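sanity check this chain:
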Amino acid sequence: MATGSVQVYYGAGRGKSTAALGRAILAASAGKTVFIIQFLKGKTNEGMEFLKRLEPEIKIFRFEKSKEYFNDLSEAEQLEEVKNIKNGINFAKKVLSTGECDLLILDEVLGLVDQGVIESEELKNLISVRLEDMDLILTGRVFCNEIHPYADEIFHLISED
């Protein structure tokens, strides 16, 4: 019997990553291991120094090299970052298939589909390699309807900025 779940946090505005981080803290406080892989956010240090203090219970990974957000990069820079993002996707696939953690958060992974960096089929394949007892959280602005059958819970967050 499967004990893990797939949750999706999506919507315009703020709160998706924060909600996922709240789940990460709850899991870590219960003795679970948590990995967070962030996409499209660049290597900005906003809040990262604090989050690094949560290691080793919560480990954060960023594969992008630029300090800028993906949308702020030139087309040539975006093409270069796509290679780094693909490395992050491959790492996520390895984590999901080997069960290296109890909770994996793919922060802004839905944005990869929305930006055309990956196809929805690739995201579905990524979700499908998840071990049944592992929890997975996906975040992003735009919900990818093709993954609806893979999600146990879907939260549409509406921010009033």
In short: Strands lie at 6-10, 34-38, 58-62, 103-107, 135-140, 153-156. The chain is about 35% helix and 20% strand. Residues 94 and 102 are 13 Å apart (CA to CA).
